[in-house]
Design goal:
With 157 residues, the protein is of the alpha+beta class. It is built from 5 helices and 7 strands. The chain folds into 2 domains: 104 residues, Murine Class I Major Histocompatibility Complex, H2-DB, Chain A, domain 1 (2-Layer Sandwich); 47 residues, no CATH class.
């Protein structure tokens, strides 16, 4: 479906543009890749007059239309992999402006990796505060100084 990065970027940008209201300043997608070709979350937002709003990537004027952005991000991930074991990123942020500019950023978030590794039926998962979960899932992630009890240090003997 997608042959190169330019096709992917064009598809994502065009899909966003088609689903946005008439008036907006900038729009962005915050993407969390949970499992390649299985699970991805895409949080679409736009700003207008310094307020933030949600928009639906799969609905235009009340009619369902699959944007296929999930498949575009899966394809992008696959193109960026050096080999089948490489994990180039697990979070991405794609932004467009009403002037036509766009940017995309990627990162590999260790806290997100840890969060995804938890068994949802475990006590450790149940004990997590919803604010911590939301920060981990966000583009910004946890603050640098947050106490990460799950991060283990290796002892050197």
């Amino acid at each position: 479906m997608f042959n190169n990065i330019d096709e992917i970027y064009n598809h994502i940008g065009q899909s966003m543009f088609e689903h946005l209201p008439e008036k907006w300043d900038k729009a962005y997608l915050e993407v969390n890749l949970h499992r390649l070709n299985v699970s991805i979350s895409i949080d679409p937002k736009y700003t207008y007059e310094q307020q933030i709003f949600d928009f639906d990537l799969d609905v235009i004027n009340g009619v369902y239309k699959n944007s296929m952005c999930n498949k575009a991000f899966y394809a992008l991930y696959t193109i960026m992999q050096k080999d089948k074991d490489d994990v180039p990123w697990n979070k991405a942020r794609f932004e467009i402006t009403s002037e036509g500019d766009f940017s995309i950023d990627f990162k590999y978030d260790e806290d997100f990796v840890w969060y995804k590794s938890l068994d949802i039926d475990s006590q450790e998962y149940d004990d997590l505060d919803i604010d911590v979960i939301n920060q981990i899932k966000s583009w910004g992630g946890l603050p640098e100084n947050y106490p990460r009890y799950w991060a283990k240090t290796k002892k050197i003997n």
